[in-house]
């Protein structure tokens, strides 16, 4: 998917919501456990109920790897279901991968070709040759971790490197990578006050913002400091939406929670 | 496996070699492609031929993920084969994972419980709460990326943070993590001259050293600067061993290459 297509979807749906499919078999409604593939059944129901309210879905790969073959099969079925039925959705493999060049190429093929995700999240620690193999894929997007939503972010990301905070160094250096126009960045909603300075470094790139909802981030603050003329934001919510109910009404309740966020997003988009 | 058991294996075999199972279906001997599971067949033959010369095996997970379900199945069969037949081998899931706390717990369960690896490689970018969920597993080892073997390492790892190189900051900060005694560190053999300073910060921890062989690192230099009184080194070689031949003699040739390294290691251990 091109960035222009993503922007068109946001304007059409008046939403820049991404739904995180962090599907945990211990938290899904018990009646689904009798299904042949409970994880996929849950995801399918959530997707069907929320797809008109959001522009993207983000499975966190850890939740699938944790179940081995069974989990990997559910992930494959989920991304295939999305691509077959809702190709207008922007899909994110939240994998936080990164390795030496020839190995990163393997991960890129896994997520961009085999699974056919639109994007993948990448950790920047290993530098240029760990990121560029992902950037080489046309119309695919590499979402680099910049400032994450967790408390551990303060261990290194906000410390000074070369006269500026490390996450800013990551932003600056990554702009010099080949095909840097295919970059997006992860910035946690729990650190919304940082967004103004981040926008000075990367005014045009999309930001993927997790942490609204269960982790405590505030949507209005995120928009105030992070939105650009092309919106430039994908705001993710996982637990707050997908676990709104553990009853038979779980998909309906998830849609209600997604709709609550979408209404606020419509308001924010109206200010543009 | 405990660290003491690993040291005992090294002393018994006079080897601290780890064989990297970066199995690429385009590089394995063509006659294996008729097998039901060529990746596993290749791994099994390599393991059987080299196990007396090495103390560990390190599948890089990217090579398995690249083949989707088929790859994941081959990975499961490989680690099960190792644990069933050679439980004395130290197994490393080279995954370079790392995510917020509750998600890292998922990855830890995937690799330590479901797949039953002895250790997993982790990227430090997200800090304490992304690493400690791995450290919480008793007799399992968390191998943190410190100074990697690729050129991209110079993008960030060697830049100054808080008055010292970033990779040193990673070493220092990680020593304060809960259960830090379960840490090991990745230090590329291509940067052997850094090992002396690294040993000043982490004198006792094991170092996993990739980059000997195909990537150009020198074993003697690595030992000179990196060895401690308990050896403290696991040196990995992947391509140089497993792709020594593409003929029907591939396993035999792999064993020859492994033996060449083991002879040098025996010499180095003799100097202790």
TrEMBL record, chains A, B:
One of its GO terms (molecular function) is orotidine-5'-phosphate decarboxylase activity. Keywords: Decarboxylase, Lyase, Pyrimidine biosynthesis. InterPro entries: Aldolase_TIM, OMPdecase_type-2, OMPdeCOase_dom, RibuloseP-bd_barrel. Pfam families: OMPdecase (PF00215). The keyword Metal-binding does not apply. Pathway: Pyrimidine metabolism; UMP biosynthesis via de novo pathway; UMP from orotate: step 2/2. It comes from the Bacteria. It is an enzyme of class 4 (lyase). The keyword Chloroplast does not apply. One of its GO terms (biological process) is 'de novo' UMP biosynthetic process. Coiled coil: none annotated. Its EC number is 4.1.1.23. It catalyses: orotidine 5'-phosphate + H(+) = UMP + CO2. Residues 16-254 form the Orotidine 5'-phosphate decarboxylase domain. PANTHER family: OROTIDINE 5'-PHOSPHATE DECARBOXYLASE. Belongs to the OMP decarboxylase family. Type 2 subfamily. This is Orotidine-5'-phosphate decarboxylase. It comes from Aggregatimonas sangjinii. The gene is pyrF.
């Amino acid at each position: 998917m091109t960035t222009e297509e993503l922007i068109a979807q946001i304007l059409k749906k008046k939403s820049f919501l991404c739904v995180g499919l962090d599907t945990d078999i211990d938290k899904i409604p018990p009646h689904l456990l009798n299904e042949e593939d409970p994880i996929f059944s849950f995801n399918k129901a959530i997707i069907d109920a929320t797809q008109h309210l959001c522009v993207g879905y983000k499975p966190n790969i850890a939740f699938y790897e944790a179940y081995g073959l069974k989990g990997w099969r559910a992930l494959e079925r989920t991304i295939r279901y999305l691509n077959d039925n809702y190709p207008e959705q922007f899909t994110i493999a939240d994998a936080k991968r990164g390795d030496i060049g020839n190995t990163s190429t393997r991960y890129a093929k896994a997520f961009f070709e085999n699974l056919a995700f639109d994007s993948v999240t990448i950790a920047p620690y290993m530098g240029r040759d760990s990121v560029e193999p992902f950037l080489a894929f046309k119309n695919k997007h590499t979402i680099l971790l910049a400032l994450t939503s967790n408390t551990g972010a303060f261990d290194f990301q906000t410390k000074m490197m070369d006269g500026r905070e490390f996450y800013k160094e990551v932003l600056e250096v990554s702009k010099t990578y080949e095909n840097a126009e295919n970059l997006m960045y992860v910035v946690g909603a729990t650190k919304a006050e940082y967004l103004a300075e981040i926008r000075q470094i990367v005014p045009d790139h999309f930001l993927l913002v997790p942490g609204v909802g269960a982790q405590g981030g505030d949507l209005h603050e995120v928009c105030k400091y992070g939105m650009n003329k092309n919106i430039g934001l994908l705001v993710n919510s996982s637990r707050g939406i997908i676990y709104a109910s553990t009853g038979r009404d779980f998909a309906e309740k998830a849609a209600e929670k997604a709709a609550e966020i979408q209404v606020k997003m419509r308001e924010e988009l109206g200010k543009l």
